[in-house]
Amino acid sequence: MTGAISLALLSMTNLSYADTTQDLVNALVTKGVLTEEEGALLSKGHDKKKANTPIVNNKGGKFSIQSADGKNEIALTGRMHFDYRATDVDDDALDNSDTDDYDVDSKSMSDEFEMRRARIGLKGKLDGVWKYDVVLNGVGKSSNVLDTASLTFAAMKPFQIQFGRFKQAFNLEGLTSSNDIDFNERSFINQISPHKKLGIAIKGEPTKGMTYMLTKYQEGWVTNDVENENNYSGRLTYDFASANKIKDSIFHVGISGFTEDYSATPKSSSNGGTSTHAKFLKFKSAGRGFSPLFRMDQGGETLSATGYSAKAKQNIHVESAILGLEGIVAKGPFKLQGEYAGGKFESKDEIRGNDMSADIQTAYLSANYMLTGEHYSKSYKGGKMKGIKVANPFDFETGTGTGAWEIGARYEYLDIDDIKIDNTGAATSSRVVGALDCGVATDDDYTNCNNGKGGANQYTIGLKWIANQNVLAKVSYTYADYDHDIIAKDLSSNEAFDSEQLLQTRIQWMF
After folding, report:
1. Domain that residue 12 falls in
2. How far is Cα 358 from Cα 378, in angstroms, rounded to an integer?
3. 381 contacts 364 by C-beta, under 8 angstroms
């Protein structure tokens, strides 16, 4: 009778059966309160319920729900990066007139706050063989609401298939999450990277320390021509430390590249006009600073009437072929990282026969040191750098913990050479703009810049405090030295400058 009562009481309780519940059942059987048959009956119910109860995880600000068998998972992700940028390319570098100060086209020359990123999304796995992610943008144009969305068949580590919108296979720094990059902004190389595109990829880790990825992708959300686009990227990496079980170290080398062949639509200026151009290559200075440091505009057809951002009816053809090299050497709390990318960008108006091209080379070398002793090798996985594993996280509620402190320095350069502009058959003129050795002193629209060249060198130092895995703060200072004067054409005085100093801060929240 006592056993029956105990059985009824345990059956009616709405317990989430844990190991302690099973221990209680075993104890009741041992003491004779329950028979072995009654204990087995309870254990059977416990096992059945446990096998179907989802597991809720809420650790370190990361929230996820996982099926009991671990084959299905849905996790919430998000980030917010709030920046402040101060540049001397304003009243300090230029003797602006009062009218210049109010020129709306000179926003890249202003000090400003910026919500650099605000994203929310879901990621997880399905049936134990699929991985997925869907991330939405809260910052940017309405057409950029979707940041990434992809599905990956990941049943085998050596061979996986991914399709959707995702980062293409080029550039170590570009493939590193914006949450985990060393400085406030990535280097010049990232400004020629294919970034996030619609496409399909095969990738994997065939052996310890080795990764590969090959992709075919589309340039925009929709194609601009009836011809097929031929855009491909590839990356192969190898880490000698992982392959040979060398502790606390990274010896990473990689080679990557992409080739593009697509159509672009020329349009008129936002100020109005009948001339149309397609901007197919553009550089900004450090930290999304002065723009354009360099830009190539392929001339298109002339419109019959003045239009504001009016599109031409005929497209131009854009081609590029870029090779990249990358490396990381890290030991304990010290990391040295570098990349090089170079190749040719060219475009052609197939109807009118005019074309233009330029050779581009970019590279950077950075050195970082963890003042609090964390090891970079613990943040390296799958051929990429992840977030630092903070040894002593700071607790905002109690005020305890130091967080992780990191210092760093980076040198980078941009080299533009062998510029070719052929306007022989053009109805409107192709042009280049920026820090170049061609043109006249009062104009930065260079329509006659054959064999021209230019570029810039940038030097950055930075300090980062990673409070914990959810909160980060960093500050950086950059000095940019341009090879030639840049004409601030947006200003009525057409003033020139040849350098820029930039101070950037960021408060970052992520989960």
Report:
1. 1-53
2. 41
3. no
Whether the model pTM is above 0.70: yes
* Residue 45: strand, helix, or coil: helix
CA dihedral for 215, 220, 226, 231, sign (positive or negative): negative
Task: Report residue 189 as tokens.
Answer: 């190389």
Same domain assignment for residues 445 and 490: yes
The pLDDT, as a whole number, for residue 17 is: 40
pLDDT tens, residue by residue, 286-304: 777 788 888 888 888 888 7
Q: Which of 304, 215, 311, 306 is nearest to 259 (CA)?
A: 215
**384, 339 contact by CB (below 8 A):** no
3-class DSSP state of 219:
coil
Tokens 């068998």, located at residue: 69
Judge residue 5's burial from the number of C-beta atoms within 10 Å of its C-beta, 0-12 exposed, 13-18 middle, 19 or more buried. exposed
Tokens linked to 228: 């097929």
Q: Most confidently modeled of 260-274, 307-321, 379-393, 494-508?
A: 379-393
Number of residues assigned to the chain: 511
Phi, psi of 9 (to 5 degrees): -65, -45
The beta strand positions in 146-208, using DSSP E, are 146-153, 160-167, 196-204
Q: Are 38 and 99 in the same domain?
A: no
* Count of domains observed in the chain: 2
* CA–CA gap between residue 489 and residue 479 (Å, rounded): 22
Listed in order, strand segments (DSSP E) in 5-159 are 55-59, 62-66, 73-87, 112-126, 130-137, 146-153
pLDDT in tens, 397-454: 999 999 999 999 999 999 999 999 887 765 567 888 888 888 654 555 677 788 889 9
- Do 192 and 265 reside in the same domain of the chain? yes
- Angle, helices 36-52 vs 2-12, to 10°: value is 10
Phi, psi of 7 (to 5 degrees): -65, -40
Q: Are residues 35 and 107 in the same domain?
A: no
